[in-house]
Design a protein that fits this description.
Elements (H helix, E strand, L loop, with lengths): L21 E4 L4 E4 L2 E2 H4 L5 H10 L5 H13 L5 H12 L4 H10 L11 H23 L13 H10 L5 H13 L7 H11 L4 H12 L2 H4 L2 H11 L5 H10 L17 H14 L5 H21 L9 H11 L7 H23 L24
Antiparallel strand pairs: 1-2, 2-3
Helix pairs in contact: 2-17, 3-6, 4-6, 5-6, 5-10, 6-7, 6-17, 8-14, 8-16, 9-10, 9-17, 10-17, 12-16, 13-15, 14-16
This protein binds acetyl coenzyme *A.
Acetyl coenzyme *A binds next to helix 16.
Length: 379
């Protein structure tokens, strides 16, 4: 019996797994996270609530919520050998995404393949911000700040970066960002995690595969350049001439366009609201007003230069603004994305461990078939 084969380069349009975690509807511009519309969930929930929702398919009771917070807080401190390795990693100037991937790989020192998979998921998600924050501080020649048990996951991340308790608006803005990007269908890094899990491999290996995949600029890398564009424009009057010049030169405007979302990117809307709340009335209110103007001009010019392509603002435009607003430098944007997406990765791995099948597509052979062996001495 021969198996029917369909060629879909890049696996576009292929449904490779079932999930209850998120639904991406590009034509309607909708993102559902475990049953909740993104704009209902993201600005209200804590990240711990979203993690519980993804891992258990329901929101936690108050008691479950406090238990989860306490359990995560208890898993934040790193094994001494991981801390020692991070010193070496920082001294070598290894890029942050590589440092995060290397640190994640060492989490086998504190979790065992025999542990309950959800417990392993919790330990990994809890420890990743410590790995990142310690590496950042060591690279800057500063002492690492040990995790604070009383703070929430997101607040503690900011605390470990700065050594000071963050303000509530900063935490809320970053928490909305974490919730907004926690999961997004079978994106490349989530697929990588599920492929690893589908072979019967372990949670740590799956997360290492996912971090390595997110590192690529086609997946996790656009928010830095989107913000650079706003900074380069600098003043309202420069927006139109600079954007026109870019489009005349055939360049792409960073932070616009999306393969799936053709109406609107709901994540951009959620983060725009977060940015508005955070910036308006604050010290950087002018930056938010300028960014809104840049967006307005960009959308008008994209319609003029690329009519009918339905190019809308994407998640990266407002990601840049929110992360900059809460005080993160562009170098930290992609690894911070990884900290948030780790919630989705672990949930997908748990889902695949429970009911997934080995992911094993085919490749069409395009090489030659008429070669004959020549012994080494004759070559
Ligand atoms: N600026 C100017 N023109 C654009 C842009 C843009 N940002 N995006 C697409 N176009 C144009 C293309 O030049 C093309 O024009 P053509 O028909 O004259 O050749 C047309 O729109 C369609 O473009 P495609 O490349 O086919 O669109 P695709 O769906 O493959 O690309 C992508 C999506 C990669 C996001 C693209 O819109 C882009 O490069 N955007 C800028 C980079 C960016 O913001 N990336 C982050 C995306 S969000 C995320 O991945 C999490």
């Amino acid at each position: 019996m021969t198996m029917e084969t369909i060629e879909r380069p890049g696996l576009q349009g292929v449904v490779a797994a079932e999930t209850r975690l998120s639904r991406v509807d590009g034509e309607r511009g909708e993102l559902i996270i475990a049953g909740y519309a993104l704009d209902d969930l993201a600005p209200r929930a804590t990240f711990e609530e979203v993690l519980f929702l993804l891992w258990n398919d329901r929101l936690p009771t108050q008691r479950e919520y406090h238990d989860l917070r306490a359990q995560m807080a208890a898993q934040r401190a790193l094994h001494p050998q991981i801390e020692a390795t991070l010193h070496a990693v920082a001294n070598a100037g290894i890029p942050l995404m590589d440092a995060l991937r290397m640190g994640a790989g060492l989490l086998n020192l504190s979790v065992s393949a025999d542990d309950d998979p959800q417990q392993v998921a919790l330990s990994i998600v809890a420890a990743l911000p410590t790995i990142l924050a310690q590496t950042i501080r060591l690279r800057a020649g500063e002492e690492p700040v040990q995790p604070h048990e009383d703070l929430s996951h997101v607040a503690n991340f900011l605390y470990m970066l700065d050594g000071a308790k963050p303000s509530d608006p900063r935490v809320r803005a970053l928490e909305t960002y974490f919730n907004t990007v926690v999961d997004h269908g079978l994106n490349a890094s989530t697929l990588a995690a599920r492929v690893a899990a589908s072979t019967g491999s372990d949670m740590v290996s799956a997360i290492v595969a996912a971090i390595g995949t997110l590192k690529g600029p086609l997946h996790g890398g656009a928010p830095g350049p989107a913000l650079d564009l706003v900074f380069e424009i600098g003043q309202r009057k420069n927006a139109e001439p600079i954007l026109r010049q870019r489009l005349e030169a055939g360049e792409r405007l960073m932070g616009f366009g999306h393969r799936v979302y053709k109406v609107r990117d709901p994540r951009a809307d959620a983060l725009n609201s977060a940015a508005e709340q955070f910036f308006v009335g604050g010290l950087q209110a002018d930056l938010y007003v300028l960014a809104r103007h840049v967006e307005e001009v960009a959308l008008r010019l994209l319609e003029e230069y690329k009519p009918g392509r339905r190019l809308q603002t994407n998640v990266e435009f407002y990601t840049a603004l929110v992360l900059h607003g809460v005080g993160l430098s562009t170098e930290i944007f992609t690894p911070t994305f990884a900290l948030a997406r780790a919630g989705g990765w672990t949930a997908h791995v748990l889902e695949h461990m429970a009911n997934g099948r080995l992911l094993r597509p085919l490749a069409r052979y395009v090489g030659t078939t008429d070669r004959h062996w020549t012994p080494l001495v004759d070559r």
